[in-house]
Amino acid sequence: VVAELYQLPSAHDIFAMHIHSGASCTETAQDAFADAGGHWELQPAEHPQHTGDLPALLSNDGYAWFAVYTNRFSPAQAVGKTVIIHADPDDYRTQPAGNAGARIACGTILA
C-alpha cells in the first residue's frame, strides 16, 4: 500500500488511515463519507485485525507519504474500495474503529 497526501490538517501530525468496504465517498447530512462503509473485512475480525486496518499515517506540515506491505489482501482485491483518513490516531484497541475520530478525507482505490 502506497499513499501520498497533501493538505492534511496541520493541527495534528498523526492520523488513522483505514481501507473501508464501500465504493463511494459520497456523504449525507448526518455522516461525512457515509457511503464509504465500515472497515473492510475479508474475514470477520475485531479491530485492529480488519483486512483494511493500516498503521498510523504520519504528517509533516500537512504532507504525508506512506508505504506498508501487508499480506491481508492482494492489490486486485482492494481496487474499488475506499480509503478513509480519520482526524485522530488509531488506538488499536477500541472497537470497532480504534477511537480514530471523524472521517476527514476519503478516496477510492484505483487500478
Q: How much strand content do the residues show?
A: 25-35%
Helix fraction? under 10%
* Unreliable sequence segments: none
Shape: globular
- From the N-terminal CA to the C-terminal CA, the straight-line distance is 12 Å
Radius of gyration: 13 Å
Decide which structural class fits the backbone. mainly beta
| Number of DSSP E strands | 6
Order of helices and strands: EEEEHEE
Write out the strand line-up for the largest beta sheet, numbering strands in chain order: 3-2-5-6
- Largest sheet: number of strands, sense, barrel closure: 4 strands, antiparallel
Mean pLDDT: 92
Discrete helix count: 1
Describe this structure in words.
With 111 residues, the chain is mainly beta. It has one helix at 75-78; strands at 2-5, 14-20, 57-58, 64-67, 82-86, 103-108. It has a four-stranded antiparallel sheet, with no helix packed on it. Strands 1-4 form a two-stranded antiparallel ribbon.
Question: What key phrases describe this protein's structure?
Answer:
111 residues; mainly beta; four-stranded antiparallel β-sheet
